[in-house]
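Regression test case RT-17, inverse folding.

Input:
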């Protein structure tokens, strides 16, 4: 972090001893880091710490102290840490909230993470853990400052290129965009419909050395099987009925730039063979042609399909999968990054109010809570459509629950799973919960992912991480 950049931290705990100890640790972090590196990566002067003895006092302090991070104890009288987290998420969605919980209290840690906390730390305090959390947040802010348009008002929220978010999962995506955009590597972007895969492809191209070259977007799902080769690789005059002139294909038009193949899982097998050749050699022939053309085109692909299942069903070539999967970026569904919902709601509210010349000032607390609670199967695209509808029909200056459709206001039905934990390890608790849900759903991965409220791709990766396999 540059020497002139200040990270403001608000420590909240009802115990004076805990507040002073945490403040002392934070004050000493910068001095230790500077001594280790010989640089002012994080200095004592760069970490400005204030304290509050309750959730209510913390909210009063935030009116005049624009904190970047709030570190709050979870167990406090009157307004506890989770209630404070909820208030901060509604009022100041750009603040990173870190929850402090007693060692062994897994339930509080899990609840806080699901409620949108950035991270959690355990008591008794560990210098290295607190230092790591602060450095991680500092790194994420640095990513944003390099490619993000914050505007003059720091409370507007975080944007990376045109992608809005501050959830840790999105910071991982931002970091990958920054790293991969410098290369020519082929990228596969996966994620559910409406998660913003095209925006990520945009960011990769416009942050790359190819930004001044062409950027060709192709919706593979919209191409008919008879014309897909012609669209991608072009055709010669007379190549087929209706081919009255020579035509360049998308790959040729993207020479020197980037081609984005959206919904690549819908490309027919014969075309996949031609696509594999382009990726391996950079060469192809137009339909009806004999000359071999060579192009310098960077390829970015996206899909909402499970390509592993498509390979098993012989609908997608395994060799093509490994060729396009040089760099894999997974975009999390909106239900897995609920802390971004207030940011997105405020962004779309402002956008559609500007377009319709309406003056809706805010979303009420009750309406925002409904929006946060909803599962958003259509992800960010669905949220944008909902807010556009709200703006069109809202008659007042505040969005109320009555302005939201009945579907949003319905309380989601959830299934309860009884879980007994023999350890205070959060990873072990997560693995135990996943195995329990998988058993309850007869190892139906789609149903298990739904019950766990995570994407199926996330479930796959977690199962691999924890070594969870279906019994033979």
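Golden output:
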């Amino acid at each position: 972090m540059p020497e002139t950049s200040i990270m403001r931290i608000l420590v909240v705990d009802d115990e004076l001893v805990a507040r002073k100890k945490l403040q002392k640790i934070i004050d000493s972090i910068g001095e230790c880091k500077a001594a280790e590196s010989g640089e002012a990566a994080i200095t004592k002067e760069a970490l400005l710490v204030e304290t509050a003895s309750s959730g209510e006092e913390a909210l009063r302090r935030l009116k005049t102290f624009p904190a970047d991070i709030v570190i709050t104890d979870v167990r406090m009288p009157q307004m506890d840490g989770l209630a404070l987290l909820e208030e901060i998420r509604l009022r100041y969605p750009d603040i990173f909230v870190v929850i402090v919980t007693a060692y062994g209290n897994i339930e509080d840690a899990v609840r806080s993470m699901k409620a949108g906390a950035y991270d959690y730390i355990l008591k008794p305090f560990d210098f290295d853990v607190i230092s790591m959390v602060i450095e991680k947040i500092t790194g994420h802010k640095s990513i944003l400052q390099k490619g993000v348009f914050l505007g003059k008002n720091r409370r507007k929220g975080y944007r990376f290129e045109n992608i809005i978010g501050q959830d840790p999962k999105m910071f991982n995506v931002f970091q990958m965009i920054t790293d991969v955009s410098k290369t020519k590597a082929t990228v596969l972007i996966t994620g559910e419909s409406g998660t913003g895969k095209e925006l990520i492809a945009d960011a990769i191209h416009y942050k790359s050395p190819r930004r001044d070259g062409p950027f060709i977007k192709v919706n593979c799902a919209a191409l008919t099987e008879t014309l897909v080769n012609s669209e991608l690789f072009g055709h010669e005059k007379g190549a087929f009925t209706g081919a009255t002139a020579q035509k360049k294909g998308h790959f040729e038009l993207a020479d020197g730039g980037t081609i984005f193949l959206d919904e690549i899982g819908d490309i027919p097998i014969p075309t996949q063979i031609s696509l594999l050749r382009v990726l391996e050699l950079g060469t192809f022939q137009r339909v009806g042609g004999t000359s071999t053309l060579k192009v310098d085109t960077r390829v970015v692909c996206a899909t909402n399909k499970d390509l592993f299942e498509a390979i098993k069903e012989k609908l997608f070539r395994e060799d093509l999968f490994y060729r396009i999967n040089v760099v894999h970026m997974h975009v999390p569904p909106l239900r897995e990054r609920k802390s971004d919902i207030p940011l997105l709601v405020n962004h779309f509210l402002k956008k559609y109010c500007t377009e319709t010349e309406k003056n809706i000032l805010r979303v009420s607390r009750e309406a925002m809570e409904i929006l946060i609670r909803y599962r958003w199967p259509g992800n960010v695209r669905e949220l944008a459509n909902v807010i556009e509808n709200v703006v069109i029909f809202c008659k007042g200056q505040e969005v109320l629950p009555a302005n939201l459709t009945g579907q949003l206001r319905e309380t989601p039905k959830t299934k309860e799973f009884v879980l007994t934990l023999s350890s205070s390890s959060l990873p072990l608790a997560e693995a135990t919960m996943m195995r329990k849900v998988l058993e309850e759903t007869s190892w139906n991965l789609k149903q298990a992912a739904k019950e766990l409220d995570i994407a199926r791709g996330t479930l796959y990766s977690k199962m691999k991480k924890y070594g969870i396999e279906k019994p033979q």
